[in-house]
């Protein structure tokens, strides 16, 4: 389990607002920029989409 910093969450959220589904290239770029693994990025986006779905 990963504990994301407030800064990381902010970056992930702004990225999610622009695009709810990341392609492999965007995921790789974001992971490199944030020093997280691609799997962590992918999982965060999956969980965030589920959170959005629950809120509707």
Automatic annotation (TrEMBL):
Domain Homeobox as annotated: residue spans: 1-55
Recorded GO MF terms: DNA binding; DNA-binding transcription factor activity, RNA polymerase II-specific
Chain residues forming the annotated DNA-binding region: 3-56
Transmembrane segments: none
Source domain of life: Eukaryota
Keywords, comma-separated and alphabetical: DNA-binding, Homeobox, Nucleus
Matches recorded under CDD domains: homeodomain
Family: Belongs to the BAR homeobox family.
Name under which the protein is recorded: PV1 protein
Organism field: Ptilonorhynchus violaceus (Satin bowerbird)
Gene from which this protein is expressed: Pv.1
């Amino acid at each position: 389990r990963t504990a994301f910093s407030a800064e990381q969450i902010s970056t992930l959220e702004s990225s999610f607002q622009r695009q709810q589904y990341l392609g492999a290239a965007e995921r790789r770029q974001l992971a490199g920029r944030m020093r997280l693994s691609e799997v962590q990025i992918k999982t965060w986006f999956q969980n965030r989409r589920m959170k959005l779905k629950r809120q509707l």
